[in-house]
Amino acid sequence: MKAVILFGHGARDARWREPFDRLADLWRAQHPGTPVQLAFLEMMTPSLEDAVSTLRAQGATQITVVPVFFGQGGHLRNDFPVLLEACQAKFPQIALSATNAVGEDLAVLQAIVDFSARAL
Amino acid sequence: MKAVILFGHGARDARWREPFDRLADLWRAQHPGTPVQLAFLEMMTPSLEDAVSTLRAQGATQITVVPVFFGQGGHLRNDFPVLLEACQAKFPQIALSATNAVGEDLAVLQAIVDFSARAL
Description:
2 copies of one chain form a homodimer. Chain A is of the alpha/beta class. Chain A has a single domain, classed as Rossmann fold, CATH 3.40.50.1400. Chain A contains 4 helices and 4 strands, in the order E-H-E-H-E-H-E-H. In chain A, helix 3 links the parallel strand 3 and strand 4. The longest helix of chain A is centred in the C-terminal third of the chain and has 17 residues, at 74-90. Chain A starts with a strand and ends with a helix. Chains A and B meet through strand 1, helix 1 and helix 4 of A and strand 1, helix 1 and helix 4 of B.
């Protein structure tokens, strides 16, 4: 079974995660057959490893990790691949893969342009 | 004249800003009559103040600042309002306003859900 992890940076302020919770809710409403978990790099839980573990317990065999980041800086170029590799080593029975950062997607950027235009 | 500032966090890795440059390019192609500048909270230039100054020199009188952040944590709840107020005090002839973070926009979140679904 396929599953998705929406992977964010994390922040000290608990309210920072609100859009991530909304994202997961949207996913669940639109893709009820594909489990989703949030995971965070730092300052928030669950970790990537804990999210993989939860999805595995739900029967996931293929997990796509989506970095919900705009830019691909040190966190995504350096920290994230190490984390992903460590998870893959820990859960060899799961096929783990990752997408580009969502900020690389033209439709995401277009939605930001449209949001900005509506605000003028 | 109206203008827009796309305001991001900034990062040490210069490649992090690529989606921001693409955002500004998209804006310019679609809204050529409304100048746009990027600005960053830290680790990248220009600052918010420098971006306001540049747009003012281009004739802007009303500037909308769009925080290109997912969540609203300490940076947007604490640092950003102080920065915006300082800019407003420095440029009293400009009407400065700010939107919510783009991560609060349902269409932006939906674009992320769609990107994730296409990746499965």
